[in-house]
Design brief:
By secondary structure, the chain is mainly beta. It has a single domain (about 5-140), classed as Metal Binding Protein, Guanine Nucleotide Exchange Factor, Chain A, CATH 2.170.150. Helix content is about 10%, strand content about 40%. It contains 2 helices and 11 strands. It has helices at about 35-40, 120-130, and strands spanning about 5, 15-20, 30, 45, 50-55, 60-65, 70-75, 85-90, 90-100, 110-115, 135-140. Strand 6 (about 60-65) and strand 7 (about 70-75) form a beta hairpin. The radius of gyration is 14 Å and the shape is globular. The structure holds zinc ion.
Length: about 150
């Protein structure tokens, strides 16, 4: 399966998306919440895919809770880039990646605005359940269970 790859600026957090959907079929979403606006994040995901997040230095990885406290943003504390967001739903961890941190960012479709911030928590989660990558795994050097 083709892989889309990206990382934070310093290489501490690497993201790899395995999917049959080409980047040219994916529309990034620019969420208008204050957090995403401040970072200029543009989120891409496709449901049937596998996202692997690889961490080099866990001590420099900040999991910031946002979006009614149910989404976690993977922020590199060394360079400040946010390559991924995840949400734990029952036994599954779903996620999306930040187009801005992807190597081939020019390959995606034009970014569309999205405004989930006014949705109640349950509707936000339903939305993520539908659009986000349906399998997320985390690979880290120390395996302390991020
Ligand atoms: Zn970094």
């Amino acid at each position: 399966m083709p892989k889309l790859e990206g990382s934070c600026y310093c290489g501490n957090i690497t993201v790899r998306v395995e999917t049959d959907t080409p980047a040219s079929d994916m529309t990034p979403r620019a969420c208008d919440c204050d957090f995403c606006s401040a970072h200029g994040a543009e989120w891409v995901s496709t449901p049937h895919a596998h996202l692997e997040i690889e961490i080099q230095n866990e001590a420099a990885t900040n999991l910031y809770a946002q979006g009614s406290e149910s989404a976690r943003f993977w922020i590199c504390a060394q360079c400040g880039v946010v390559p991924a967001v995840t949400c734990d739903m029952g036994d599954f961890r779903k996620g999306a990646v930040n187009k801005r941190a992807m190597l081939d960012r020019a390959a995606f479709k034009a970014t569309q605005p999205a405004s989930p911030k006014n949705l109640p928590k349950e509707e936000k989660r339903q939305r993520w359940d539908k659009f986000w990558i349906d399998r997320v795994t985390v690979k880290d050097c120390w395996d302390v269970g991020l």
